[in-house]
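My convention is simple: the sequence line spells out the residues, with the fold written below as integer tokens. I include a record here:
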Amino acid sequence: MDTEDALQAPAAEPLPLLDELGLGRVLVVVAHPDDAEYGTSAAVAHWTSRGIEVGYLLLTAGEAGMQRPPEEAGPLRTREQRAACDAVGVERLTILDFPDGVLEYGLPLRRAIAREIRAFRPDAVVCGSGQLEVAWGFDHADHRAAGLAAIDAARDADNRWVFPELLHDEDLAPWGVQRLLLTGARATHCVPVDEAAERRAVASLSAHEAYLADLPWHPAPEELVTGVLAEQGRLAGLPRAVAFAEHRLRG
């Protein structure tokens, strides 16, 4: 079964609900502004409404993603991402300065993500799967690099002998993430979302107004978000949901 079939074909049994017991903080790691707004933000709205703290780590400012100079696009996309975060209750937004469009998997990227994990101390990390083929086709090279680096950084952050300078120079003690929640992989669990979370997710994607205006082919935010949530909800026998592949690193 290929990735698209795994994500979209009806499961033999409905996906179980994600156990949220022990989730106090969640870190969402993505490559660009707007990456979290294609479904994930509905789960984020659900979590923040339940008192779970969510932080976003963007590895680039998305400066190469618009039909305008990067020095103008980067700050604009940062402002739009701040508004998108406000729509779903995310206060902690960290945007790094890795170059958009040519993000490379490697030690600097792993170190930067491990640094944020140690600083924020999340119970779960949400990130991409790093796979080439996903439900919507071939994934962006930046998305693949971001996903692989985040998966590895979740382990790096828990090992005092990997990137020891984080401890010795920055006083960031090791931190063990309990779970990885992967997008773009064969789903194992789902997060049910209500109409309020759906509306907030639509608002979060709509906040990227200037970016979306540069993409005339892009579906309307409401059409896209409600479609994604309905499709993933179908896998769980629910009106709407966000699906993840859960991997337990501890416990």
Notes: The mean pLDDT is 94. The longest helix spans residues 70-87. The beta strands are 25-30, 53-58, 92-95, 124-128, 133-134, 137-138, 179-183, 189-192, 241-248.
